[in-house]
Amino acid sequence: MESPGSVSRCPVRQQRARWERKRVCTARELLETERRYQEQLGLVATYFLGILKAKGTLRPPERQTLFGTWERIYAASLELLPYLEEGHWGPGLEGFCSHLELYTQFAANAESAQTTLQKLLKKNKRFRRFVQLQEGRPEFKGLQLQDLLPLPLQRLQQYENLIVALAENTVPNSPDYQQLTRAARRVSEAAQRVHAIGQSQKNDQHLLRVQALLSGRKAKGLTSGRWFLRQGWLLVVPPTGEPRPRMFFLFSDVLLMAKPRPPLYLLKSGTFVCKALYPMSQCQLNRVFGHSGGTCGGLLSLSFPDEKLLLMSTDHEELSRWYDSLAVAIRSQKS
User: What share of residues in the chain are helix, strand, coil (percent, to 5)?
Assistant: First the structure.
């Protein structure tokens, strides 16, 4: 017969005890945060959505754009919480996964929601007064509507962290192990889809900003369908003469060199004229000097079939970031 001391020293039992402690802590955190999440979802559903519907302050299309799938996400939380409170983690979370598409739809609408909110606050006096009144309620604890709108996307990231941790700390012979493992996988996949949507929306904003900086007939449609990586000033070193500062915009497939418009173009002040486009699929990149740091900057060589660019910067760290970004673009095109 094993003594209590030998049992307590058994590595397998110790590991299972650690798993169980982590599982209990994770389950408690998931439950407590779900209660708070549901409370905040309910505040928006009651004091914003419900009253806006009743008063008709906003037209239905505006209301739909502003809140997206909020009410259905709230209903999904109402359905999930009783399972968590009763400790039925596996069935509750696996059932919740059927609602994950609501979060993907919410993410796809997130940018439009924030744009619509700012537009309504600026142009609709009645709506602006309503929002200020509701935000002043003690239940909101100083939070503004624009702070609450991203809540479901923030919660999805929490779901991924907590549900994955719950699955990882559940022993394989547990009755809900398979359900938790499936739920963790599906939540992680949904979080990845939402992250990709967010990255795409940020890229679209960058492209719009860059397109606005470019003027002239050659600039039309230059950024369409591209993935923005970096922009900044670099010195172009010619075969003879002094280095010339140029603005560079790096995309996933091309490097765009631009020159600032002269001050005489008052209507185009602050914009740039596209001077050249260099395909990254044909680029050979080398660091001429500036490998080892220091304060003297560095020089990059970019070779193309018909031209060779020498780009210089007096900031070594900035040049290193350019080198890394250019290398990423080249690899992505050649792969």
Answer: 65, 15, 20
State the pLDDT confidence band at 7, using cuts at 50, 70 and 90: very low
Helices (H) and strands (E) in the chain, counts: 12, 8
**Model pTM above 0.85:** no
The mean per-residue pLDDT over the stretch 143-150 comes to: 95
| Cβ contacts of 334 within 8 Å, gap of 6 or more | 281
Residue 139 has pLDDT above 50, yes or no: yes
Closest CA to 181 of 100, 93, 81: 93
What are residue 260's phi and psi, to 5 degrees?
Answer: -65, 140
3 state SS of 279 = strand
The residues, any chain, with a CB within 8 Å of residue 234's CB and separated by 6 or more, are: 245, 246, 248, 311, 312, 313, 322
Determine the Cα–Cα distance for residues 318 and 250; give it in Å rounded to an integer.
14
Distances (CA, A) of 148 to 41, 76, 155, 215: 9, 18, 11, 38
| CB atoms inside a 10 Å sphere around CB 44 | 21
Return the structure tokens found at 82. Answer: 């009783």
> 299 in the Ramachandran plot: left (φ > 0), alpha (ψ -120 to 50) or beta?
beta
**Beta partners for 236?**
244, 311
d(CA 299, CA 314) in angstroms, rounded, equals 9
H or E segment at 71?
helix 70-85
Query: CA angle at residue 330 from 324 to 332, to 5 degrees?
Result: 100
How far is Cα of residue 124 from the mean position of the Cα atoms in its chain?
29
Q: What would the two tokens of residue 315 be?
A: 């900031």
Residues 250, 242: Cα–Cα separation, whole Å: 24
Number of neighbours of residue 91 by Cβ within 10 angstroms: 14
